[in-house]
Amino acid sequence: MANAASGMAVHDDCKLKFLELKAKRTYRFIVYKIEEKQKQVIVEKLGEPAQGYEDFTASLPADECRYAVYDFEFMTEGNVPKSRIFFIAWSPDTSKVRSKMIYASSKDRFKRELDGIQVELQATDPTEIGLDVIKSRAN
C-alpha cells in the first residue's frame, strides 16, 4: 500500500472520516498528521460541525506540517447555500526541512485517497489560508 516515493501508507480512518465529512457533514474539518514511526497518515483532529474557520486555523500547529480538509459553506450572490471541500497542505516556514519534504512527497498520493476535494491550497503561513483567501477560492 505504501508509496515508493514517500513510504507513507494512509490509515483507513482517514478515508472513512473524510467520507463522513463529505456525505453526512459529520465534521467541519479534519486535520491529518504523518506518523513517521508508523509510516502512515492518521487523523489528528476532528472539528465539530458547529466549529468555525477560526477553530480550524487554531488547530494547525505553528511549526509543524499537516494536511487538512475543511468544509466551507457559503452563500452565492443569488443567496443559494453552497459548500466547497478544501484540501490544505499546511507547511509552515518554521517546520523542519525533513518534515516539509515528507509532506510534499506524500501529498498527491494522499489527496487521491480523498475523493471529492474541490479546491486545493498550499500554505506556509496563516495569511495564505485567511478566510478572505478561502472565500475568493470558493466561487
UniProtKB/TrEMBL annotation:
Keywords: Actin-binding
GO cellular component: actin cytoskeleton
GO molecular function, one term: actin binding
Keyword Protein biosynthesis: no
InterPro entries: ADF-H, ADF-H/Gelsolin-like_dom_sf, ADF/Cofilin
Superkingdom assignment: Eukaryota
Keyword set includes Transferase: no
One example of a Gene Ontology biological process annotation: actin filament depolymerization
Annotated ADF-H domain residues: 5-139
Pfam families in the cross-refs: Cofilin_ADF (PF00241)
Family as reported in the entry's similarity comment: Belongs to the actin-binding proteins ADF family.
Name assigned to this protein: ADF-H domain-containing protein
Gene source species: Clitoria ternatea (Butterfly pea)
